[in-house]
Design brief:
The complex is a heterodimer of chains A (129) and B (498). Chain A has 129 residues and is α+β, with helices and mostly antiparallel strands. Chain A has a single domain, classed as OB fold (Dihydrolipoamide Acetyltransferase, E2P). Chain A has 4 helices and 9 strands. In chain A, a hairpin with a 3-residue loop joins strand 6 and strand 7. The longest helix of chain A has 12 residues. Chain A starts with 7 loop residues before the first strand and ends with a helix. Chain B has 498 residues and is α/β, with parallel strands linked by helices. Chain B has 3 domains: 37 residues, no CATH class; 257 residues, Aspartate Aminotransferase, domain 2 (3-Layer(aba) Sandwich); 85 residues, Aspartate Aminotransferase, domain 1 (Alpha-Beta Complex), CATH 3.90.1150.10. Helix content of chain B is 36%, strand content 10%. In chain B, the strands form 3 sheets. In chain B, strands 1-7-6-5-4-2-3 form a 7-stranded mixed β-sheet, sandwiched between helices. Chain B has a 3-stranded antiparallel β-sheet with strand order 10-12-11, covered by helices on one side. In chain B, helix 5 packs antiparallel against helix 13, helix 8 packs across helix 9 and helix 13 packs across helix 15. The longest helix of chain B has 37 residues. Chain B is globular and about 80 Å long. About 2% of the residues of chain B have low confidence. The chains are: A alpha+beta (129), B alpha/beta (498). The interface between A and B is small, with 12 and 7 residues.
Chain lengths: 129, 498
């Protein structure tokens, strides 16, 4: 399983990548594969305030609906509006074109406590039992 | 016995699969009824109600079907032949959805003496139904070992809410406000939902790898802020947690209450009484355990039983037997949480539960639970070498297994779809753990049916080795083949005409 090393991960399979104080967020390939074909991504609106640990959106697939959790506190500055018409981008390119939201974080340091790529790979392997 | 997909019986021609909709059949002027000439004089609508209220043009109903009676009968009869039903096919969905519902239940519930009652009838007129409900109440008290049962809640989830409201009322009556409710990570989704609805915070307790509650994690989390632990036992992965008395002691040690989600009572009837293993409150799903035909959404009934110390908080009115032997509704209960449902509960479902319990009797109920447990364990034993079982046996009345076939990319969905070709309804999928199938045969299936299911599952495992594509593209023998669920969700076309 290939996992990019330029970002951090939550146990619930969201990834977060900081560029300055803006954090881009999406879900991992593992999560996209487990959900199977994604049919709808419910994203917050630009300007919405989000806090660390809170739910701010949903991903729907033919199999399940999953909440999106934030690992940072801040304000939504951009959403990936392509997902409205092309939710399959999350399946095809979850770490790239399938990104979901950009959050202007009040403290990027919050990401420090998350898993890096190696730890996340082990987390996924443990889930597969 | 050789097991083959049931091709002869279910094969249909493409023409039949494409059978036109009712709206695409018929011809102008065709009709299924012939009304007699009107024998009352026709009057002028404009003069009767005023011309200003009349539409200028007749409403247009484009495509409204005009069809003769014979074609109409054939259309619906043809559709009925496509039904996949519990009357024709084995459903390993179990009591959660489609346990066998004895016909005699329906006969009792349809009796005009019950069906035509009105809730506002005077009490003297409704003694029969009150007596029936009173006895049902006492049967459920006996089965659970708890002190008193309310029949009001309409389904399991409402039963949970009623139970948790009583627990909250109990803590308040002792001057405490406990904001936390614990649920194991294997809990039904309704449990944390109930906590939130009742203004409590749901906290998750970890399970061990064998599916039982991790007592260390429970001890670490339960405290004097904990209102209750909501537990299902046997739990959702199909194992009976024999630590339940220890769990009760830990929970009670902090002054919290033990709530039992009774969804899996089909394994316990006459074998174990929840009150004996420390339960303070529980709900029954009578539509599951005591058989009412239902689907997701009902109809259901979720009677709730409580231990002695919670009785003051039960909902009102309660059905009671008076000193003179008559029956009445009693509103007198000073610390009651009030009424949780309009009128008196889901009477039709409760009637079916009454008939089911009376028809089986106490020995029969125990026999049913023993057979349900035996059937599940028999199937698990037959399948253990071909499928992955994440939790070790023995099981209660159901079990989960994971289709895992090495390199062949065949999922639980593919196996479930292929089962249809063998004349078996798909089981619960992908819940409560990832990629699993959950099998609950119940007590009513014959050994021959259980063997047919086991052999079909083994045959599918063989197919995966020899020809996985057949499994991946199933079903093959149904009027409608594998649906494109992705396109249906992403680009739904819900308009007629086609």
């Amino acid at each position: 399983m290939s996992v990019p090393t330029d970002r951090k991960f939550l146990e619930s399979h969201e990834w977060f990548m900081a560029e300055g104080d803006v954090v881009t967020m999406g879900i991992s390939q593992y999560a996209a594969d487990e959900l199977t074909d994604i049919t709808f991504v419910d994203l917050p609106t630009v300007g919405m305030k989000i806090s660390d640990g809170s739910e701010f959106g949903e991903v729907e697939s033919v199999k399940a609906t999953s909440e999106l959790l934030s690992a940072v506190t801040g304000e939504v500055v951009e959403i990936n509006s392509r997902l409205e018409e092309e939710p399959e981008l999350v399946n095809n390119d979850p770490f790239g074109d399938g990104w979901m939201v950009k959050i202007k974080a009040s403290d990027v340091g919050e990401l420090e406590k998350l898993m890096d790529a190696e730890a996340y790979k082990m987390h996924c392997a443990a889930q597969d039992g | 016995m050789s097991v083959m997909p049931a091709e002869e019986r279910t094969i249909v021609t493409p023409a039949e699969a494409d059978h036109p909709l009712l709206f695409e059949q018929g011809a102008p002027g065709a009709t299924a009824v012939s009304l007699p000439e009107s024998d009352v004089p026709e009057i002028d609508a404009a003069s009767a109600i005023g011309a200003e209220y009349l539409a200028e043009d007749a409403p247009e109903l484009p495509g409204f079907p005009e069809i003769g009676e014979m074609d109409l009968v054939r259309h619906y009869t043809r559709l009925s032949h496509r039904l996949f039903s519990v009357d024709e096919n084995f459903y390993p969905l179990g009591s959660c959805t489609m346990k066998y519902n004895p016909r005699v239940n329906e006969r009792a519930a349809a009796m005009p003496e019950f069906a035509n009652l009105h809730p506002y009838q005077p009490i003297e007129d409704v003694q029969g139904i009150l007596e029936t409900l009173f006895h049902l109440r006492t049967y459920l008290e006996e089965i659970s070992g708890l002190s008193e049962v309310t029949l009001q809640p309409s389904a399991g989830a409402q039963g949970e809410m009623t139970g948790l409201m009583m627990i909250n009322a109990y803590h308040r009556s002792r001057g405490e406000n406990r904001p936390k409710v614990l649920t194991p990570d294997s809990a039904h989704g309704t449990n944390p939902a109930t906590c939130t609805m009742c203004g409590r915070q749901a906290c998750t307790v970890k399970s061990r790898s064998d599916g039982r509650v991790d007592l260390d994690d429970l001890r670490a989390q339960v405290d004097d802020q904990t209102a209750a632990l909501m537990i299902t036992n046997p739990n959702t992965v199909g194992v009976f947690d024999e630590q339940i008395s220890d769990i009760a002691a830990i929970v009670h040690g902090c002054g919290a209450q033990l709530y039992l989600d009774g969804a899996n009572m089909n394994a316990l009837l006459g074998i174990a009484r929840p009150a004996d293993f420390g339960v303070d409150v529980m709900h029954f799903n009578t539509h599951k355990t005591f058989s009412t035909p239902h689907g997701c959404g009902g109809p259901g009934a979720g009677p709730v039983g409580v231990a002695e110390h919670l009785r003051p908080h039960l909902p009102v009115p309660q059905v009671v037997r008076c000193d003179d032997g008559s029956y009445a509704w009693c509103e007198d209960r000073s610390k009651s949480i009030g009424k949780v449902r309009s009128f008196y509960g889901q009477i039709g479902v409760l009637l079916r539960a009454f008939v089911y319990i009376r028809a089986l009797g106490s020995d029969g109920l125990r026999n049913a639970s023993e057979k349900a447990v035996l059937s599940a364990n028999y199937l698990a034993a037959r399948l253990k070498d071909r499928y992955h079982f994440p939790f070790p046996p023995p099981y209660a009345h159901e079990f989960v297994m994971v289709p895992r076939f090495g390199s062949a990319r065949v999922t639980e969905l593919d196996v479930a779809k292929r089962l249809i070709d063998y004349g078996i309804h798909p089981p619960t999928m992908s819940w409560p753990i990832q990629h699993c199938l959950m099998i609950e045969p119940t007590e009513t299936e014959s050994l021959a049916t259980l063997d047919h299911f086991a052999e079909a599952m083994i045959a599918i495992a063989d197919e995966v080795e020899q020809d996985p594509e057949t499994v991946r593209t199933a079903p093959h023998n149904m009027p409608v083949r594998r649906m494109d669920e992705v396109a249906a969700s992403r680009k739904p076309n819900i308009r007629w005409p086609r």
